[in-house]
Structure formats: structure tokens, C-alpha cells
Amino acid sequence: MLNVMIRWCGAAGATALPGAAFAATDVALLPRNLSPWNMFLNADIVVQTVMVGLAFASLVTWTVWLAKTIEIRRKTATARRRLSMLETDTVLAKAEQESRGGHDAVAQIILSAAREASLSGGHVDDGLKERVALRLERVEAAMSRQIARGTGVLATIGATAPFVGLFGTVWGIMNSFIGISEAKTTNLAVVAPGIAEALLATALGLVAAIPAVVIYNHLTRTIAAHRALLGDASAMVLLLISREGDRGPFRLARAAE
Description:
This protein has helices spanning about 1-15, 20-30, 35-40, 45-85, 90-100, 105-120, 125-150, 150-185, 190-245. It is an all-alpha fold.
């Protein structure tokens, strides 16, 4: 009789605590390591491809930032130095001589103006000033395009990375539902890995997009400041030509050859 009562109590206890039994099963079946690296290794090939692409985009973002920052700082320092030279009591011929062999933007502005003055025979009039101004506009535009080269990819990454990450999220969640359907269970161990992988793809998309947008805006401001320096240099060259024209015809001794 005592044995029958013990069996009945054990069965009643098991019936009274089904949730605890299922919870123990869920915990037993859950992956022991859900670190980002293990989630990447266990992810679907499509989700892995999305993650690798986003990581590469993030690497490109920081590479462009480093390269463009060094380039802009170097070119801005050179432009300021040449602009200081133009602001002194100098003439176009002397400025042209000091700029020979230079490939920076301000040097190209000075050489282009000297070339046009040399072709005009040193006679300063309104036509010469217009021609020089046209040349300087072309040089400014070319140098602006050159210094802005490579920044467009940041805008592309900032605009598309969140959507690429969202694609990985949708694919991971879809795989989770497929796993639920095939296993015919809503066990957390079936759903959790796929959802975790999907959220990791979203996180990588944001990690790639946010710095790209911030860096793009920063580079846009610094490039605009550099363009303002080129505009100041063009204005100073036009002032030199106008000032020398008031003194009479001038000659650039083999200036632009």
C-alpha cells in the first residue's frame, strides 16, 4: 500500500510541474556559447556573407577617413603657406617662380594665371582678367574634385548598410521560422540561435553605417574649408594682376614655359 501511494505522489508531482520539466529541457538544449564569433560561425551562409560585407564596408570607412584626413591636412597646410606668400608685397612673376614644379592646388592656380598673362603679352585689360578668372575657376573645380575623390563611397555605405543589415535580419528570422516548422516545436533552443544571428547582422549594419555618415559629414566640412582657401588664392592672384595692370604693362620672363 505504501509503495502505491509513493508512485501516485510521484506521478502527481510530475503532472503538477510540467512547466519546470519543459524549462529544464529548454535550458539543456540552448547553445552554451552565443558569443558574436560563434554566432557568425553557426549562421547561414547568406547571413555570413552579409556580415562579412558589412565588416568590409566598415574597414573601407575607416581607411577612407585616415587617408583623406592626412591628404586634406597636408594640402591645407601647403595652401595656407602659398596664400601667405601671395598676401605679401609680391608680384605675379615672383609668385610664379616660387610655384614652379608644385603640384598643389594654389601652385596650379598661380601657374595657370601666369600662363594666361604670358599668352596675352603682358597687356592687362578687362579681357585678360576675364580669361584668367575662367582659368582659375576651372583649376578650382578640378582640384575640388580631386580632393573630394573617395568620399562618395562613405555616403553609399551610410545609406545602404542599414538595409543590408536588415536583409540579414530578415533572412535569419526566416530561417528561425523554418526551423520551428521542421522541428514542429516552439522550443526556445530552436528559435534563439537564428534570432541572435539576425540581430547580430542588424548590429553590424549600424556599426558600418553610423561612422560612415559621421565621417562623411566631417570630411564634407573640411573639404568646404579647403575650397574656401582656393577661392581666397584665386582672389589674391586676380588682385596681383589688377595691381600690376595699374602700374602698366608687365612681362613674365619665361614665366609659364
